[in-house]
Amino acid sequence: MVRVVRVSFREDEGSIEVRLPAELVDRLNLAQGGSLVALATNDGILISTEAHADEAEQLALGREIMRQFDETMRRLARS
Fold first, then answer.
1. Which residues lie below 8 Å from residue 70, measured CB to CB, with a gap of 6+?
2. 6, 24, 32, 37 from 3: Cα distances, Å
3. What whole-number distance in Å separates Cα of residue 78 and Cα of residue 59?
4. How far is the C-alpha of 70 from the C-alpha of 47, rounded, in Å?
5. What's the gap between Cα 60 and its chain centre?
6. pLDDT tens digits for the chain (79 residues)?
7. Contact by Cβ (8 Å): 5, 24
8. Cα–Cα distances in Å, from 71 out to 38, 59, 75?
9. Alpha-carbon gap, residue 50 to 56, rounded angstroms
């Protein structure tokens, strides 16, 4: 399921603070002092927990490969 969740941010002492809505914090099972992983892709940024970082990176790489070999994949699908 894909959902769009808007986050807010503000500048504080030269850094940018990002505020996540409570529903997203709950869904990601975040606790104070934890961290997130941000994966930059051609489609945008994927944010994940450390536990799911490898899966998110693999999905991003898979999407990139599919994009690079789009025509080849289409031909294979028709075979």
1. none
2. 10, 10, 24, 19
3. 24
4. 25
5. 8
6. 667 778 888 998 889 988 888 888 888 888 888 788 887 877 788 777 776 666 767 777 778 888 888 888 888 888 8
7. yes
8. 29, 19, 6
9. 10
Does residue 48 contact residue 37 with C-beta atoms inside 8 Å? yes
- Look up the pTM and report it: 0.48
**CB 45 within 8 Å of CB 38:** yes
How far apart are alpha carbons 40 and 57 in whole angstroms? 9
Tokens at residue 78, please?
């028709």
Which domains does the chain show, CATH number per domain?
8-78 (2.10.260)
Q: In the chain, what is the straight-line distance between the N-terminal and C-terminal CA atoms, in Å?
A: 30
Distances (CA, A) of 36 to 23, 24, 69: 16, 12, 30
